[in-house]
Amino acid sequence: MKVKIINQSNNPLPEYATAGAAGMDLRAFVEAPILLKPMARALIPTGIYIQLPSGYEAQIRPRSGLAIKHGITLLNTPGTIDEDYTGEIKIIMINLSDTDFVIESGERIAQMVIARYEKAEWQAVQTLEDTARGSGGFGSTGKT
Questions:
Q1: What's the average model confidence in pLDDT over 72-95?
Q2: Does this model's pTM top 0.85?
């Protein structure tokens, strides 16, 4: 699938790190390093603009290495970039650790997964079919 892209940063285009990777790395594009204090959040530009084909979205997800090593994750996760949004991709980062974290330009800060989606059409009914779980909510299927 071809996706139109504009790269206004000096970073490489988003790319898959391995042949089996589902997500492409997105990099920060900042004029100066950004200090992210504990429990602080920031909107980080990437310099990347895309135009998705009809029926596709881009999901923005945290990077596991930043999460486990530094307590850095993303808010509104997964973030959705709709097919009709063509503005700059920006990443909402938060520092959940107890130490400062510096975001440098060019640093890999998130992953982007391109996914097909379906439009739902509601069908109003009076009852729903029985299932094994039924209306069991949080924790209803046990601890394991």
A1: 97
A2: yes
